[in-house]
Amino acid sequence: MNTWWHVIRVVWFKEALDNLRDRRSLLSSLLMGPLLGPILFGMLMSYMLSVELEQAQSTLEVPVLGAEHAPALAEWLAAQDILLQPVTDEQADLARQIRERQFKLALEIPADYPAQLATGKPATVQLYYDSTQQKTRSQRRRLEQAIERYGQTVAAQRLLLRGVHPQLIQPLRVQQRDQAPKGSDAARLLAMLPYFFIMAVFVGGMHVAMDATAGERERNSLEPLFTLPVPRWALMLGKILAASQFALFSLLLNMLAFWVSLRFIPLEAMDMKLAWTPAGAVMILLAMLPMPLLASGLQTLIAAQAKSFREAQTYVSLLMFVPIVPSLILMIAPVDSADWMYWVPILGQNLIINEAVRGETITLLHLFSAVLGTLLLAVLTAGAAAGVYTREKLALSS
Questions:
Q1: Strand pairing partners for 60?
Q2: Could you give the CA distance from residue 334 to residue 344 in angstroms, rounded to a whole number?
Q3: How far apart are CA 210 and CA 200, in angstroms?
Q4: Of 321, 314, 318, 294, nearest in space to 378 by CA
C-alpha cells in the first residue's frame, strides 16, 4: 500500500511540477479560463443593467405625428417624463423612418382620435417600432404602460361623471404575495453561473490530462515509464490527481472571481438582491468537489485514444459540450427538481448551484446525492482509464 501511494504521489507531483513550468499553458488554464469569464460577465451585466436603469429613469423623447389631436395625452405623458416631439413633413412616413433607423420608435395619433374619445369609443393610437432592436424594448414597454395607465384614468373619469364608482367594474382584486426567495430575481440573471463553474473545472485540468497521456505518447516517454515495476493504475491515478489539482484550483479562482465581480453589478438599483451567501458558496464547493476527478478522468480516457497532443485537443474539445447540456435544459425548459436528479452528475451540481444563488436551503440529502453520484461515475471513469493503461500499444506514438 505504501509503495502504491509512493508511486501515485511521485507521478502526481512530477506532472504538477512539469505543468507549472509551462507558463503559457498555466496562464491559459488557470488565469484566462477562470478569470476571463467572470470579468466579461460582470462587465456585460453591469452595462446591461446600467442601460436599463438609465432608460427607466431618463426622459424619453418620442417622435409623434398628430400630436395636436391629443393634448391631454401629451400632457399626461410629459408628467411621466415622456415627451412627444412633433415630426416634420419630411418625417411624416413613420414606417420608413423606423425601417431606416432614423427613429427608434414613433407614435401616430389619427385625426379622428378626438371624435372617438368624445363618443366613448376606443380611440386608436399607432405605435411604430422594430422588434429586432433589443435596445428599444424597454422604451417601448415604458411608453405602452404609460398609455395604458392614461386609458385607465380616462375610463375612471367617465364612470365618475356618470355617478358610477370605478370599483364597481372590479368585482375581484388579486393581491399578489410572492413567496419566492429574496435572490430569485437576481438568480434569473445568473442562470449561466453553473455552466461557468463546471466549465472552469473542465478547462483547468484539460492541458494537464492531455499532456500527461497524449503528450507523453507523442514524445515516446510512456514506453520507459511502463517498464518500471509499478502498477500502471497507480501511474494513471497520479496523472489524474495532478489534472484534478489544477481543475480544482481553476474552480476556486472562478468562484472567487465571480464573488468579487457580482459585487460591482448594480442589482440593488434594479430592486434585486443577491442571495449568494458564504454558506451557499461552501455548499457549492462541496457539491463540486468530485467534479475535478470526473472531468480529469474523462479527459485522460479520451486523450489516451489519441496519438498526438493535437489529436487529443480535437477529441477533448468535444467534451466541452457536456457541461452545456444541463444548463441549457434548465434555462430553456425549467422543470421541477426531483430527488433522483441530484444523483445525475453535472445536473445535480446545476441544481445545487441554482438553489444556492437563489438563497434556498440545500438539504444534506441532495448534497450527498450530488457528491456520491458524481464520485461513483468518476471512479468508473478512472477504472476505464486504468484499463486503457494496461494496453501495450498505448506507449507507442504510431
A1: 82
A2: 16
A3: 16
A4: 294
The dihedral formed by the CA atoms of 326, 331, 334 and 336, expressed in degrees to the nearest 10: 60
Q: Beta-carbon neighbour count of residue 131 at 10 Å? A: 8
Provide the residue ranges of all domains of the chain, joining segments of one domain with +.
Answer: 2-49+185-395, 59-166
CATH for 59-166 (3.40.50.300, 3.40.1260.20, 1.10.3470.10, 3.40.1710.10): 3.40.1710.10
Torsion of CA 288, 191, 49, 264, to 10 degrees: -10
Grid cell, residue 253, equals: 479562482
Grid cell 458558496 in the structure block, residue: 281
Give which of 335, 386, 59, 356 is closest to 197, Cα–Cα.
Answer: 356
What is the full per-residue pLDDT of the chain (398 aa) written as tens digits? 556 666 667 666 676 666 666 666 666 666 666 777 777 777 777 776 676 666 666 778 888 888 888 888 888 888 888 888 888 888 888 888 888 888 888 898 888 888 888 887 788 889 998 888 777 787 888 888 888 988 888 888 887 877 777 777 777 777 776 555 555 555 566 777 888 888 888 888 888 888 777 777 777 776 666 666 677 777 788 888 888 888 898 899 888 888 888 777 766 655 666 677 888 889 999 999 999 999 988 888 888 777 777 777 777 877 877 777 777 777 666 667 788 889 999 889 988 988 888 778 889 999 999 999 999 999 999 888 877 777 666 655 55
Q: Which of 203, 221, 197 is nearest to 18 (CA)?
A: 221
* pTM of structure: 0.70
Helices (H), 80-136: 94-99, 113-118
Rounded to whole angstroms, the Cα distance separating 327 from 56 reads: 31
Partners of 108 in beta bridges: 65, 126
